[in-house]
Amino acid sequence: MKKFVTGMAVAVSAAIAATTAQAATKTLTVASWAGPKHVMNASFFPYYQEALEKCSGGELSLKVEYGLAPPPALYDTVRDGVADLTWVVHGYTPGKFLTTKLAELPGIAGNSQSISVAYQKTWDKYLAAAGETKGVQTLSVFVHGPGMIHTIPAIKSMKDLEGMKLRVGGGVANDIGTALGVAGVNVPAPAVYETLASGVAEGVFFPMETMYAFKVAEHAKNTYVNPDGMYTTSFGLLMNQDTYESLSDKQRGCIDGNRGVELTKILGGMWDEADAIGLREAKKMGLNIMEWPQSERDYFKQKTAPVTAKVLDEVSSRGVDAKAALDYFKSQL
After folding, report:
1. In angstroms, rounded to a whole number, what is the distance separating the alpha carbons of residues 68 and 207?
2. Which of 4, 38, 242, 244 has the fewest CB atoms within 10 Å distance of its CB?
């Protein structure tokens, strides 16, 4: 009888242990967009999966899902718990995010990694306190590489942009397009290829990585570069707040150990590698690249000065010392 009771106890203990282990595992659903070749899906999320699995001893894993929501709705998708993780374009939600525009300003030179790290530090020190991201944990803020102009017809001057139909995205890029007299076409990034192919747009504001990731180089063979920095786009890597709080201390520690400046540095490096791939592949398709001369750069600076002033006013409206934040941001580049 004693052996039977002992055996039952061992069996029950084993069952409880197995149930506990099973309950401790967590697969985080990632709502992603863009295509499988895009740097976030091909490089970042596989890296993040491996980092979280290693840290948690296999308790945390990711499952990337496409098509859960269109890009402008992804913030709500994660905030409302439809998915656990996502990456968003802050400018796709007009009026909601204002402080994030600081990272998108014209005249900020650098690559994705350098600007992203400076942005993350500025977010931590100044911008997060504005409370624009409710119901989510912001694990990283980052930007793509230098924004450029890619056109189907060749142009000789920025003045030729007046009246041209160009896809300009969202956020500060919209204001820059308006300042340059562009007839803005607003569509999410995944729709750009068809927008160019159908003739709805004659070109696009985009970083170099999109020439491959979104196949832009198949249509737009002319790229114009402003070495002073034309614009960038602000992104956020977000986690649902309830998901974060439901994790065990160990699992939450793995999330906290893979966020902020160090994660942003890795993200920025991946985007820079994607820019290099985009340039290489676009050159194979006959891409022509022109760097604007100083006269054009001066014209751009004069035209976009009101954009910077407007953004600083918007950031200030959220209770942030916008000038101090911008000065700090630039000092970290």
Report:
1. 25
2. 4
pLDDT at 320 exceeding the cut of 80: yes
What six digits make up the tokens of 265?
A: 């540095």
| Residue appearing with tokens 């290829």 | 193
Classify 255 as helix, strand or coil: helix
Show the tokens assigned to 295.
Answer: 């006269």
3-state secondary structure of 190: helix
Six token digits for residue 105: 């300003």
Q: Which residues contact 190 (CB under 8 A, 6 or more apart)?
A: 33, 34, 35, 71, 214
147-166: pLDDT as tens digits: 999 999 999 999 999 999 99
**Helical (H) or strand (E) element with 289:** strand 288-291
Q: Report the distance separating Cα 207 and Cα 112, nearest Å.
A: 10
The whole-model pTM stands at 0.91
Q: Which two tokens stand for residue 147?
A: 């924004």
How many other C-beta atoms lie within 10 A of the C-beta of residue 227? 11
Which domains does the chain possess? 22-144+233-269 (3.40.190.170), 148-231+277-331 (3.40.190.170)
